[in-house]
């Protein structure tokens, strides 16, 4: 089972630490597809025992882990059956439990076990499920990746879409948030109706109550403050005409480009790391960018916005960060607006086109590799997988 | 009702209406001409921002500053909130699906 350790090389084995997560199913599919592409010849799904053999509850936990591993191997078999171009016998799927002889505490313990297991089985690759957080510690994956980076193992995260976490949308319910939502919806209702007509007032109170009960836990992150909110609204009122002017300007430029018979567009995907708060500020900024024709926010990853630009002019405007500065002004005031532009901060990157500075960040490499694999002839398929493999390995770092 | 309006106001209504038409037309041309889903999403937002914007401005001017005019301003506000959200949702879905944006030299999709 030895292999030469080059990422994406054919024939190596891979170890995948798993637990029951929403993305586990997709991770299994990704691994089977990678194996079908020739990246791996054996997939080891391992579960770290959270018990020690002989503990009072060990039997129960062991039974639930066994059920999990059974499920995973069923999934893997089903996926292997779906992939017709590969000889199913060529891919070996192993499921096992490790670490049953001692308690594991931190990331280092897990990594030690993983390295030992890999050494025993001649494995040089690790693929992580993005949602994998052993012992339910949400911060562990980061340090797990860090600890793994100091080993000889080749690590990457399975490029699968994370599910929407609905739990995060629900916030604390407080009286002031309820009152704010209630007041706002009542005011809106009466603005559309007649505030002096009793029927409208009664139905308005009823519907505002319904809205406040259902949405006050969702709409507001924090209690609206009586001092800060009006100031922000005032600054927002200053911002709106500026935004209108920007929209008008870029509309004209883009209209000219579209109506030009040669249509001189030069689209590219770009990255810009913005310094605005999470939540409402970054939403405001991303929406402003999208509202301005010529730039379109595709993805927000941590502080990074992936912005598609239609023409270099729009990209330059984005990198000059005028909208970012205005957003900071609206939310944090005049001093906060004085910051170097993203270009000066070196917080920008271009993924495509002649001026590209960074590699294109695939969202799901499996979708891309399938197409490429279909397009290229036999000899170069290995190259395509290799390129995909290294891309994935790099994607782990920024997340 | 139009007869009662002053000539300046009438002229503004016509100008705004024509501007709205123009940008809606540009947006339509863009959706037809541009090469891929991302660039089309750019220009689709043009119809919503300036196309609808100018048209609603014309409506507000024609309706006057009473109830109807106020409501068109609200309408504009909601369009400006929902339009980028929808455009972003489309672009993000395309990105998650692994669609690589068109660049110069690619085949038109």
From TrEMBL, chain A:
Compositionally biased tracts (Acidic residues): 385-399
Region Disordered, residue ranges: 343-399
GO CC terms, sorted: plasma membrane
Pfam families xrefs: MNHE (PF01899)
Superkingdom of source: Archaea
Membrane-spanning residues: 174-191, 197-215, 236-259
Predominant subcellular localization, coarse grouping: membrane
Keywords carried by this UniProt record: Cell membrane, Membrane, Transmembrane, Transmembrane helix
GO molecular function annotation: monoatomic cation transmembrane transporter activity
Record-given protein name: Multisubunit sodium/proton antiporter, MrpE subunit
From TrEMBL, chain B:
Xref: InterPro entries: PhaG_MnhG_YufB (IPR005133)
One MF annotation (Gene Ontology) recorded for this entry: sodium:proton antiporter activity
Transmembrane segment boundaries: 12-32, 52-81
Domain of life: Archaea
UniProt keyword Membrane, yes or no: yes
Keyword entries, A-Z: Membrane, Transmembrane, Transmembrane helix
Any Pfam family: PhaG_MnhG_YufB
Protein name in the entry: Multisubunit sodium/proton antiporter, MrpG subunit
